[in-house]
Amino acid sequence: MVQPSQDVRGRIVAGAADMIRRRGLNATSVRTLAKHADAPLGSTYHYFPEGKQQLATEAVRFAGDLLSRTLRRELAAGPAAGLRAFFALWRETVLDTDFRAGCPVLAVAIEEPPEGETPAVLTAAAEVFSAWEALLADSLREHGADAHQAEQIATLVVAAVEGTVAMCRAKRSIEPLDRTAEQLQALVSSVIDD
């Protein structure tokens, strides 16, 4: 059973991930995050005493873990099925938000960090991208792709998805995602045994 305090904390984290994927990190204040999560501002500072960076880091990890679980489940049916599900999830995200939301992981990754610092949120974003790449590469290897090629294709998939989601938002069209999905499906089919 979820404790009420865990529910509020979880709602704040999920709300932060949603706001970051829509506005980016720098354009999102703790006050806005609390309001979006329908939580008192004091609760936000109670659960995240280190402030916005701590909350953003947890939001990125939350979003990354959510997608990793989905990807892991879908990859059980093979890399082609996993890739279809990965693209379907991003397609749904872009369309359901009328091109207003992308990926919170990318959103924090493209913002300039303070000079001479690597904030925890940027480290979390790198870890999430690596986790997605590892899941895809493992599945490709399990289905006949050689190790080096599997790693390269996994990186290409993650980079392509992130880039095409941004293109879709800019163009207000799902076409870049659909084109990319078709080409990557063909590539994956050419390197696996299934």
Looking at this protein, list some descriptive labels.
mainly alpha; 194 residues; single chain; 9 helices
Description:
There is one protein chain. It is built from 9 helices and no strands. By secondary structure, the chain is mainly alpha-helical. Helix 4 packs across helix 5 and helix 4 runs parallel beside helix 7. The termini are far apart.
Task: Specify the helix fraction band.
Answer: over 70%
Percent in strands: under 5%
On the 0 to 100 scale, the average pLDDT is: 92
Main beta sheet, described? none
Number of alpha- plus pi-helical segments? 9
Shape: elongated
The run of helices and strands is HHHHHHHHH
β-strand number = 0
| pLDDT < 50 runs, ≥5 residues | none
Determine the structural class based on helices, strands and strand pairing.
Answer: mainly alpha
| N- and C-termini, Cα separation | 42 Å
Rg calculated over all Cα atoms: 18 Å
